[in-house]
Amino acid sequence: MRDSPGLADIVIIGGGVIGLTIARALALRGVRDVCLVERGGLGTEASWAAAGMLLPQVEADAQDEFFNLACQSRDLYPAFAAALREETGIDVELDTTGTLYLALAENDQEQIEKRYEWQTRAGLNVELFGAAEARELEPCISESTLGALRFPKDIQVENRRLLSALANSVKNLGVEIVTQTSVDSLIIAGNRVHAVQTSRGRVNCSTVVIAAGSWSSFIKTSSQSPLPTIEPVRGQMVCLEAKLQLTRHVIYSPRGYLVPRHDGRLLAGSTSEHAGFAKCVTAGGISSILRNAIEISPAISDLPVIDTWAGLRPRAADGLPVLGPCGEIDGLFCATGHYRNGILLAPLTGELISEAIVSSQR
Ligand SMILES: Cc1cc2nc3c(=O)[nH]c(=O)nc-3n(C[C@H](O)[C@H](O)[C@H](O)COP(=O)(O)OP(=O)(O)OC[C@H]3O[C@@H](n4cnc5c(N)ncnc54)[C@H](O)[C@@H]3O)c2cc1C
């Protein structure tokens, strides 16, 4: 941390995938004097806990604005991953095999047929398989499978490698990174941002980006307009060891999912719980994840469990991300509430927020 009082043009609060991606996008646009302040270590919260699935189509029931943004962000991933590799040498393991969405019960079958119909009508890439064809594609899936959709464009990234690549990239690009420091409050006067007060002193700045995930509403502000209300939604995960990888696709069902990693880990997820900020795994959570994972693939029953963890998804009241200028205060931007899709939405969020900041400074 600079000596207090510090000075930066732009302060980004939060070093998860969202704060890091915005910092990188600003630096790539030639913006100097960006300081990212992180309460703990970089990329150790929801972004670390995630499964890294990039699946706008799998769960979508309609082609609304959110769906279009999510597809746009997914489609930025190949170039995003390639650029990060070029900048840092880190391969973020973007796996483009695709996703298989299984129907394991009558209701599921109706749901996948509806999804197939609207997405084919909309000209989207989706394939409908019968049970035998699906099992031919991925022999590990349950014999009770009734049918499946394959989404060739819904892919996955190794989110922890992505965080390392982003952290290296922003350091190389000259962003100042301050860890183990929390931003406690924003100093706002005359309807514009003047500074942030951190646990290690004041930093004067003209622009602030709130990218503090589930903790975004805790930052105090002297202004009348409050920051958006963001709540944590806990997600637990189980990691299995599949020395010979059982599946190539991400395999999804209406109740759970399996994500194969290149190093033989097989992730099973997840839960969706309103449990405050208690970031722990529970007996009930782990048991429901394993039940749903075994429903997808009974073959996983013999695999060793090698890890479990939990993370807090940041959710706004309407479940949609909060992006852009915030509370009509000059210089204040929000990039939070990414809920279940922050890894997916990161590249687009970086583009949109950096563009909004640069335009506001013209
Ligand atoms: C189990 C699970 C599975 C998921 N799977 C997927 C998936 O497959 N695909 C997908 O797209 N998304 C997934 N998500 C959602 C995704 O992880 C989140 O949407 C995303 O990580 C949010 O990123 P973020 O940077 O906003 O938040 P975070 O990663 O939580 O980062 C916020 C950061 O802000 C810091 N901070 C907070 N307050 C302050 C402060 N006052 N001062 C300084 N720093 C502060 C925190 O320490 C933290 O590091 C999953 C989430 C979970 C929990």
Which structural class best describes the helix and strand composition?
A: alpha/beta
**Straight-line N-to-C gap:** 28 Å
Any low-confidence stretches, pLDDT <50, length ≥5? 1-5
Main β-sheet description: 8 strands, mixed
**Relative strand content:** 25-35%
Strand count? 21
Mean pLDDT: 96
Major sheet: order of its strands?
Answer: 6-7-5-16-17-18-15-19
Rg, Cα atoms, Å: 21 Å
Q: What would a concise description of this structure say?
A:
The protein has 362 residues and is of the alpha/beta class. It contains eight helices and 21 strands.
Strand and helix layout:
Layout: E1 6-7, E2 10-13, H1 17-28, E3 34-37, H2 46-49, E4 53-54, H3 65-88, E5 99-103, H4 106-121, E6 127-130, H5 131-137, E7 147-151, E8 155-156, H6 159-172, E9 176-178, E10 183-189, E11 192-198, E12 201-204, E13 207-210, E14 220-221, E15 230-241, E16 250-252, E17 257-260, E18 265-269, H7 283-296, E19 305-316, E20 322-325, E21 332-336, H8 342-361
Parallel strand pairs: 1-12, 2-3, 2-13, 3-9, 5-16, 10-14, 13-21
Antiparallel strand pairs: 4-8, 5-7, 6-7, 10-11, 11-12, 15-18, 15-19, 16-17, 17-18, 20-21
Helix pairs in contact: 1-6, 1-8, 3-6, 3-8
The chain binds flavin-adenine dinucleotide.
